[in-house]
């Protein structure tokens, strides 16, 4: 039996948790799932797990908005050191029924938590999985990140989300490495040609906003969107997710909130849109430069052409270059945004070509069943 070890942040909707639920949805009987979680959130009924609740039930720790740097550098390490979860997990990992371990981390504090669970004197074979990596002070080294380097040096195999991340960790490991993109949550299905539709032509925004990172949305996209709507009034901007307060007020006034959409209505909601927008600009100098948002895979599988800010030097930029035009459009100026929106709206044939290119990429590279089989074969 394999054990899956990871940290579940505040809430069940973060990208890592969603992806793990997708991967292990059919494997519950064969995998012992152990995670450290914080806050007072219900355990998803479709994702049976064992867990130990941390001691972060202070009111400020349960807020939807959270200062990530303070969380990762101060709060989480303290919780991990005091948590009874460590001893419980060490005991579970030591059982003879556990033959291999799938360990998911994304920064130094979560690496510390995984190391404490694994470092029992009888270290078993484990695969280290990095779907993301957040580094403070832009440094991966034995002095700055001792727990990450410990895991990297002892993992029998590594799974990473991008070549950019692989290049970063290569000096610290000799393990076999699999470049494994985040899978879509449903089977890609080609869209039909646009027909006369009484509903507005939608541009969709979804997911987390990041404080200080919405300049593209407010200062580049919004002026272009207002100009576009002057000549295309039967259009609307919609937001799906729980971080509406993170959207600048000037943008919030121009969109219709959809709220948090349940999983069973996700595909329907995505396919009601015509275009997806990535609103957050993470420059190459930020800790998020190795991230590839899970939502992109779902956009492509739903046949949504993606518009995103030009952010050279990041894993998201690299991934969208791989997706290529016309399924993905990287824009840097208001004029680029306006031209892209206008062409997708005014030329139905171009939109259909872009939509089919998106689903073709998802079918070839992001299919859940293919990627699940590839991951389990690699970890075997």
TrEMBL record:
Domain of life (superkingdom): Bacteria
SUPFAM superfamilies: UDP-Glycosyltransferase/glycogen phosphorylase (SSF53756)
Name of protein: Glycosyltransferase subfamily 4-like N-terminal domain-containing protein
């Amino acid at each position: 039996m394999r054990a899956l070890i990871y940290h579940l942040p505040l809430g069940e909707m973060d990208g890592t948790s969603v992806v793990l639920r997708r991967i292990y949805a059919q494997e519950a009987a064969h995998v012992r799932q152990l995670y450290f979680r914080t806050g007072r959130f219900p355990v998803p009924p479709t994702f049976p797990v064992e867990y130990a609740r941390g001691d972060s039930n202070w009111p400020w720790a349960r807020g939807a908005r959270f200062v990530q740097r303070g969380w990762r550098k101060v709060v989480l390490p303290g919780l991990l050191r005091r948590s009874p979860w460590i001893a419980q997990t060490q005991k579970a990992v030591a059982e003879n029924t556990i033959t291999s371990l799938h360990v998911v981390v994304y920064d130094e504090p979560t690496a510390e938590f995984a190391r404490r669970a694994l470092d029992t004197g009888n270290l078993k074979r484990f695969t280290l999985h990095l779907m993301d990596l957040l580094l403070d002070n832009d440094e991966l080294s034995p002095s700055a990140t001792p727990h990450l380097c410990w895991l990297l040096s002892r993992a029998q195999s590594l799974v990473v989300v991008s070549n950019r991340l692989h290049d970063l960790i290569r000096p610290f490991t000799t393990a076999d490495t699999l470049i494994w993109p985040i899978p879509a949550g449903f089977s890609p299905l080609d869209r039909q040609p646009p027909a006369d539709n009484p509903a507005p032509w939608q541009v969709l925004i979804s997911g987390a906003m990041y404080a200080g990172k919405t300049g593209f949305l407010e200062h580049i996209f919004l002026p272009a969107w207002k100009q576009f709507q002057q000549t295309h009034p039967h259009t609307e901007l919609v937001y799906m997710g729980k971080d509406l307060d993170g959207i600048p007020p000037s943008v919030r006034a121009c969109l219709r909130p959809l709220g948090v959409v349940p999983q069973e209505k996700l595909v329907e909601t995505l396919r009601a849109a015509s275009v997806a927008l990535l609103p957050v600009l993470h420059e190459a100098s930020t800790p998020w430069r190795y991230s590839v948002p899970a939502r992109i895979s779902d956009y492509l599988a739903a046949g949504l052409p993606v518009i995103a800010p030009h952010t050279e030097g990041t894993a998201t930029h690299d991934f969208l270059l791989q997706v290529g035009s016309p399924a993905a459009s990287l824009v840097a100026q208001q004029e680029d945004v306006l031209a892209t929106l206008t062409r997708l709206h005014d030329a139905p044939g171009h939109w259909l070509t872009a939509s089919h290119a998106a689903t073709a990429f998802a079918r070839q590279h992001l299919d859940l069943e293919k990627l699940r089989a590839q991951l389990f074969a690699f970890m075997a």
